[in-house]
Amino acid sequence: MLFFTQCFGAVLDLIHLRFQHYKAKRVFSAAGQLVCVVNPTHSLKYAPTRCAAAQSSAEQGILPPCHHHEAVHDPQLVPCTCPLFSCPWEGHLEVVVSHLRQTHRINILQGAEIVFLATDMHLPAPTDWIIMHSCLGHQFLLVLRKQEKYEGHPQFFATMMLIGTPTQADNFTYRLELNRNQRRLKWEATPRSVLECVDSVISDGDCLVLNTSLAQLFSDNGSLAIGIAITTSKVHNAEAEM
Amino acid sequence: MLFFTQCFGAVLDLIHLRFQHYKAKRVFSAAGQLVCVVNPTHSLKYAPTRCAAAQSSAEQGILPPCHHHEAVHDPQLVPCTCPLFSCPWEGHLEVVVSHLRQTHRINILQGAEIVFLATDMHLPAPTDWIIMHSCLGHQFLLVLRKQEKYEGHPQFFATMMLIGTPTQADNFTYRLELNRNQRRLKWEATPRSVLECVDSVISDGDCLVLNTSLAQLFSDNGSLAIGIAITTSKVHNAEAEM
């Protein structure tokens, strides 16, 4: 097991050496796994009030009118789910992906297992690293956020959200895995829906949480590699059998 | 996978119902796994200065004279490694286990895989939960500590240490696993030697770290179940083959 840890580390070393001078987002394949280099975006503004309102009606698959957008007259319309920007866009759930790609230039990756390589981990909080992941017929949003919950003590929070309804999200399990320096940390959970809010997931701490010291142990030259895998939940099949 | 998560949760529910009114440490077997109920001990005093001195010479397998103990004239003598008490005992590494059992009444469990069930997680920091684990011909010390690194924000730190030298510790890998509410968190690392210091491992954050919110998600009625497994590291065999 530790042998694979070292191999994985060596591959990442090579990847990092090759790409550390690139600033653009780049996607390539290494050792059969799709690796995506994700550059940080400094978050200028958070809008927690948007989320508080959203939370209550997320189960119905709609978002209510909110403070940061014009009133949503059509209940099928969804405000922009990208947590980076206070974006005035709103639209149907089906076109959220194309909006995130086109307006916010968020990359989308295909494949059951990918590696998310977040660069420049040393940048001050608040900072986000975001990518979309297309898998099992759905699109997911991976958010890594550096944030100071306690002043002067930044932490890293990573979560995965389905670009779909909470009911659809319940059908999946996502896994985030860090693997370096003979240490391995794995987080597995059901993704949340983007109709819920990434801010509230992070403030609840219901995600992979890393202290700065752990983040440094898992980082290589300021870059953090997170292995991502998405599977279909077995729980529904198992319940059906009972 | 989530099916097993739920089964595991159901087993723990039964365990908890059966044992929540017991206050003594109890060991029993459930679903083929040895489960040990570990009660907390409030830590009255930490002695970080002991550790700072110990750290530098831990590689040589000895501990230097230190502030909290009489000077160690025999370099083979080891001060009490139990992190709970500032204990004046010192002795050879071979008799540390019997000292911990007899003087500090720390339980010892046999078996490759055990479940550590820490009770009363709500108690204020600093609090420790400690057990010894006998496995693969060696004894390990599992320490779960609730501590406030940032005032008013207690965190939980869990680590495993070999009652042996750092060179011996390099031969093993330990895994700590939390599994509840459709979430799973796994930490894998090489154990540290008790000749190094649990305080420094925790202050470095080189262990499983849980915020209060995550600890609550994984707890059941105030008890946290941690699955523990120890294996022999494959890295040495792999290196020998090269």
UniProtKB/TrEMBL annotation, chains A, B:
Pfam families: Sina_TRAF, Sina_ZnF. Keywords: Metal-binding, Ubl conjugation pathway, Zinc, Zinc-finger. One of its GO terms (cellular component) is cytoplasm. It catalyses: S-ubiquitinyl-[E2 ubiquitin-conjugating enzyme]-L-cysteine + [acceptor protein]-L-lysine = [E2 ubiquitin-conjugating enzyme]-L-cysteine + N(6)-ubiquitinyl-[acceptor protein]-L-lysine. Its EC number is 2.3.2.27. It comes from the Eukaryota. GO terms for biological process: proteasome-mediated ubiquitin-dependent protein catabolic process; protein ubiquitination. CDD domains: Sina. InterPro entries: 7-in-absentia-prot_TRAF-dom (IPR018121), SINA-like_animal (IPR004162), TRAF-like (IPR008974). The keyword Cytoplasm does not apply. Pathway: Protein modification; protein ubiquitination. One of its GO terms (molecular function) is ubiquitin protein ligase activity. It is an enzyme of class 2 (transferase). Gene3D superfamilies: Apoptosis, Tumor Necrosis Factor Receptor Associated Protein 2, Chain A, Classic Zinc Finger. The keyword tRNA processing does not apply. Residues 134-228 form the Seven-in-absentia protein TRAF-like domain. Belongs to the SINA (Seven in absentia) family. The RING-type zinc finger domain is essential for ubiquitin ligase activity. E3 ubiquitin-protein ligase that mediates ubiquitination and subsequent proteasomal degradation of target proteins. E3 ubiquitin ligases accept ubiquitin from an E2 ubiquitin-conjugating enzyme in the form of a thioester and then directly transfers the ubiquitin to targeted substrates. This is E3 ubiquitin-protein ligase.
